[in-house]
Amino acid sequence: MPFEADLAHALDRTTDSLEPDLTTLLGGAVERGRSRRRRRSAGAIAGVGACAVIAAAGLVIPGALIGTRSAGSDMEPVALAMPRSAISGAQMIDAVKKTFPGSRFAKEAGQSNNPSNPSGGWVANGAVDANDGHGAANVGVSALRLKLPLRDGEGLNCDNTAGRAEAGDTCELSELPSSAALPGGALVMSEKIAERRPIGSDPVPDSDIAHRWTTTVTLKSTGAQLQLVQWNTAGDFGGASLPKPTRDAPPLSQKQAVAALTGATWAPILGAVG
Questions:
Q1: 204-212 contacts: CB < 8 A, separation 24 or more?
Q2: What is the pLDDT of residues 58-112, one digit of tens each?
Q3: Residue 4's closest CA among 24, 18, 33?
Q4: Contact predicate 67/78, CB 8 Å
Q5: DSSP strand pairing (136-145 vs 124-131)
Q6: Residue 255, CB half-sphere, CA atoms under 13 Å: how many?
Q7: Nearest to residue 4, comparing CAs of 167, 195, 269, 251?
Q8: ∠ CA 45-48-54 to the nearest 5 degrees?
């Protein structure tokens, strides 16, 4: 099935200990995550059309632990803690849609977490193709809980973007103060990554380079983490090349993405995770 790498980043946080079959759904997972660790092949959400993966990344996913990086990784293992309560894939999809009001949606996919069954996954994901009238975009969110104390890991540093400024990649770290909605405050990482996926030896024109924008919010008090991945393309991510861009900018700006992840729509998900 041609599910994309919206949640490549969520799947990106997957551990080697999981063996469910996500291979088909992860065909278009983000190259960065693919090179850093083996992706978890599980269930029905590699992201609609992307993760991204982003997986994680791209989606990021995940027995005691469903979030360690494999041997040879360029970063330290990321330990995941058991979520407080279950979150269904349908809940995640619904929350993603509410994050992009007024859009038309297609190719939705979701994955539930399962606190009672570690092999079922401790990361919840939701992804859709969304069109706000300015072009279709594959968007997705993953939800998980990191073990405390927080350490360097996915969504907590910009190590993976270092040295890629010439490609136009950017990464910024910031913090949000403690508030009623965010007790203890939160860490925020915002990335823009150019994804060059050539066909054979042919170079990819700049106009055909897909981009993904990743916004990660991690609560310092609980380790609950939401990661939003937005692509400027949509469609089938399973081939050798990414679909051509359909827009220049993501549906949500960095500021809007942070506001959405820390707002009322995602508050129940953050509470259930952490």
A1: 204/241, 207/244, 207/245, 208/244, 208/245, 209/245, 210/242, 210/243, 210/244, 210/245, 211/245, 211/250, 212/5, 212/8, 212/30, 212/50, 212/52, 212/54, 212/57, 212/58
A2: 333 332 222 333 223 344 457 889 899 999 999 999 999 999 999 999 999 999 9
A3: 24
A4: yes
A5: antiparallel
A6: 0
A7: 195
A8: 75
pLDDT higher at 8 or 244? 244
Categorise residue 72: left if φ over 0, alpha if ψ from -120 to 50, beta otherwise.
left
Q: Which residues contact 34 (CB under 8 A, 6 or more apart)?
A: none
Q: What is the DSSP string of 32-50?
A: HHHHHSPPP--TT-S-S--
Q: How confident is the model at residue 182 (pLDDT cuts 50, 70, 90)?
A: very high
Encode pLDDT of 107-166 as tens digits: 999 999 988 876 667 899 999 999 999 999 999 999 999 999 998 777 898 887 766 665
pLDDT at 23 over 70: no
Question: In the predicted model, is pLDDT for residue 181 greater than 50?
Answer: yes
